């Protein structure tokens, strides 16, 4: 914990990964552990962890990087927070993100622009950019992020760390500020696959506070790290090495696939024909759900309240002043897509496309164990490069979003550098197939 704060005070002025530090409480928790010892089954005892600022933390400000929640001081802990506390991990602070997790660069944060530790001119990715940057910069060993449409995997790829988006339902969403409830899932960001396995084991499991959390036993994931992937059936979708993907990224991925083959994996080319419709379908579904979820921020129950005596005026002003441009864009898109005249043309159609995307994956998983490809079409882009061009920004999520729509797990892990910047290798698994992903990722990492 000492080392974490020393490092943070040294580098976070430049990196700007943290929004809030929990220094006093963290130090006294660490001291108590030193004095009282720890039980053998507390697997994260004393480990410094950073939490994305959309996870509610009792008595520790939770802003979602939004002006509207600038002073929100939650009364309870998210289930994932309770679970890391129960293992005696020590919360170092809250990490920057895109406002309400909407974005792919952490530039939509109201408070700060987090920098990529590999090149301070570049974005760390998003929306869990603070989480990935803090791990990459050596500020914390463990971080939690959330992934609605790539937000754990894309920043992990850009920052050269390991990020897992678990199966929908694997981890409780209780106490995560909801963005798109049918897609949101929390997961671990770490330096190594082994650390990642331990952190997922800590946070996973059924929770009576979240009716979508799954009643499926949580494996001891670290036991899957045998190094043996002989006979593993690996599918490479041709769309994932096709148009729109940088040549330098493709070269690293091809080399990684060769390495998996040399470890005994059997590699096949396959097709995910509907993946090209994933980005448009996602932005309709995610925005629709967001427009409903964000209705609660009205200046009454939470957050910033505009000064006026008229009720309707107060709602309007609080929301106009409290939300940033990207959040407003999503609310308007979502409200439009759900409106009675357009519902069938947009929302319903997007849900149908979602089913087709899910079926594409089911077909491939009939005779393959994992799917492999890049996490992102490019390496980290420059700060400011895409922020005024939402469509280019959205297109960045091309390879991550199909996984969220299908509800399946995927991990991103470092796969060398291209022009001095990290490339992310993505491995996609069957529902609740996180063990296989960890086994394959660990074998590759060795
Ligand atoms: N880029 C995606 C979006 O802006 C990322 C969302 C996420 O996973 N939180 O919607």
From TrEMBL:
Organism field: Sporolactobacillus nakayamae
An example Gene Ontology biological process: translation
Cross-referenced SUPFAM superfamilies: Amidase signature (AS) enzymes
Known function: Allows the formation of correctly charged Gln-tRNA(Gln) through the transamidation of misacylated Glu-tRNA(Gln) in organisms which lack glutaminyl-tRNA synthetase. The reaction takes place in the presence of glutamine and ATP through an activated gamma-phospho-Glu-tRNA(Gln).
UniProt keyword annotation of Ligase present: yes
PANTHER family: GLUTAMYL-TRNA(GLN) AMIDOTRANSFERASE SUBUNIT A, TRANSAMIDASE
Pfam family, one: Amidase
GO molecular function: ATP binding; glutaminyl-tRNA synthase (glutamine-hydrolyzing) activity; transferase activity
The protein's name: Glutamyl-tRNA(Gln) amidotransferase subunit A
Catalytic center residues: 52 (charge relay system), 127 (charge relay system), 151 (acyl-ester intermediate)
Family: Belongs to the amidase family. GatA subfamily.
Keyword Nucleotide-binding: yes
Record-annotated Amidase domain positions: 1-437
EC number: 6.3.5.7
A cellular-component GO term for this protein: glutamyl-tRNA(Gln) amidotransferase complex
Catalytic activity: L-glutamyl-tRNA(Gln) + L-glutamine + ATP + H2O = L-glutaminyl-tRNA(Gln) + L-glutamate + ADP + phosphate + H(+)
Alphabetical keyword list: ATP-binding, Ligase, Nucleotide-binding, Protein biosynthesis, Transferase
Known partners and oligomeric status: Heterotrimer of A, B and C subunits.
